[in-house]
Bifunctional chorismate mutase/prephenate dehydratase
Amino acid sequence: MDLDTLRKKIDEIDQEVLKLLNERVRTAAQIGHVKRLEGSPIYVASREEQVLRKLGALNQGPLSDEAIRAIYREIMSAAIALEKPMRIAYLGPEATYTHQAALKKFGASIDYIAAPAIPDVFHLVAKGDADHGVIPIENSTEGAVSHSMDMFFESDLKICAQIFTPISHSLISLSQPNEIERVYSKDQAIGQCRNWLHAHLPNASIHTCDSTTKAVQIAKDDPKAAAIASILASDLYGVPVVAEGIQDRLDNTTRFLVIGKESSGFAKGVEFKTSFLISVDHKVGALEKALGVFSSRGLNLSKIESRPSGKTAWEYCFFLDVLGHFEEETVAAAVEDLKAFCPFVKWLGSYPNAK
Ligand SMILES: C=C(O[C@@H]1C=C(C(=O)O)C=C[C@H]1O)C(=O)O
């Protein structure tokens, strides 16, 4: 076929695609109406994952599953915006890695609010100024973001989704590396580039600041300074990248959480993760007994992290991640068991265990 004929064919296909897309978002708007009557949440992470999994199973190519997910991310974003204008608070300012994770999850049709600090994300959602919030929770190189974890002690907000984002850091500066005297970034980002900094900028002093974006703002005003941040932040502030991919591990990935007033309901065909916060008695075998509640039911405990209780020195609480949904019988029964002997058990949410 010649070019004109092929382009005519594309135009005809686009007409059909457009008609179907509008039909799809009109149906989503109707769903939004039903949800408003029921008072149920507009964004439903488990349903989205179910739709994406079904599409993955139906897909015969040549589009990759990744491409289907990216395309549908924007279709769903537009659908949600028609159901209700939605606001997502994230740990800002603009162009942070959390901002990028939020965009990846919610797409371009949603309104975003940059919050100055992690507690502000929680407060905006709790007050109803934002429908959901996005916060970093752990990094594959540096481990837990303890400030985020500790917020769950006091907050009643629930986890409704998780987002995994590969993190590639750049050195951003008005000067070349041999002229840099000071390096600025968020503590977590500095920790992810420790070996690189030691090898390439051994004489530079290292300074922490509130965010990777803030670091770029500093580097914009101080030619002897460099920031560790994303290429997006370098573009936004017009400060050049002088070295790329400076993180110590190639597979450096951060896990972010979406928080909201409600967790994510169960959906068939979707694998779930459930997070808990517990404390155990100061007794021999108390922690082992708590963990045994899950293993005896064949439940996979995918993570355990201890944090100081915040009440008494040298007393700890434990964050647990278990594969399964709180609405599933085995998980619910395990929790009932825990409640019988643990002084404190708090369910933090069940959400799709999508990578
Ligand atoms: C349409 C719905 O609302 C939202 C949009 C979805 C979609 O476009 O498929 C899926 C889940 C929700 O986040 C729904 O709940 O089914």
In short: The chain has three domains: 41-167, 170-251, 271-352.
